[in-house]
Amino acid sequence: MNKSLPIVTPLSPAIGVEIKQVDLSQPLEQHTWNIIKKAFDDYSVLVFRDQHITVEDQKRFGRHFGELFIQEHLLSLTIEGHPECMILHNNDKKPPGLNYWHTDNSGWERPPLGTMLYAKITPEVGGDTLFSSMYKAYESLSQHMQSFLKPLKAVHDVRKAFGSEYGNLQNALKKYGLDPDKHFANFQPVQHPIIRTHPETKKLAIYISQPYVTHIEGLTKAESNSLLSFLYEHIQIQEFVYRHRWKTNDVVIWDNRCAQHYAVADYYPAERLMHRLNISGEVPC
Ligand SMILES: O=C(O)CCC(=O)C(=O)O
Ligand SMILES: [Fe+2]
Description:
Shape: globular
Distance between the termini: 39 Å
Bound molecules: 2-oxoglutaric acid, fe (ii) ion
Helix content: 10-25%
Oligomer: single chain
CATH topology: Double-stranded beta-helix
């Protein structure tokens, strides 16, 4: 396999491509990787259907994008012997709870550049994941707004996302028997630019993440709240969005530096199980 060239087909005008004629159970030829890398930079979300891969295969593919990121607070949810690979499992006892727009781990100093899911069990219907292009979200703002946002920084706090103040992720983690307050007590807030430059494409993208962001540095509380509300609404505009309808054996990888995602939680009490990897990233700038 992987002798023929991959076929790259856009899934929406804004974001996302399907890549055919790639078998991720095999090591990638250099020319195949070059096409995949270019598609990742050009479209931010890659979909590979009908893949039959082991955890090792998934990790090998992930390492092409960068070093694998270990989520220390989620170790108990990982596959034995594979601390990088988390099991995202929802069913009648563990309802899904990631149904809000976000970019992963933005409360970290160096948030992961990408996240990869491999669908092991998918519900008959529902459980889609939405992806929104933060390039498009930036480009559709007026020049006045773009200039106003460029020097601003948002404060991202892991304790907001996982602590009792916000509750959403905390409840999700508690269902898994984890105590988020214990894990995150010593985390300090970090500041990231609201408009970041993608290190590969050099394009500008909006970088905010509702579960983590507490406020915008240097604005009054009222100004910060209003501007954040505007941005949270703005990034959801349907013209920026691709909605992925999962099939078992799909592999999807997305770029957290220029895309946000939303996992639709409509399939409860049906079962959904993903194998999940994060790729380490750089300090946003
Ligand atoms: O389950 C999904 O579709 C995505 C969940 C999510 O937010 C993540 O894996 O980072
Ligand atoms: Fe996420």
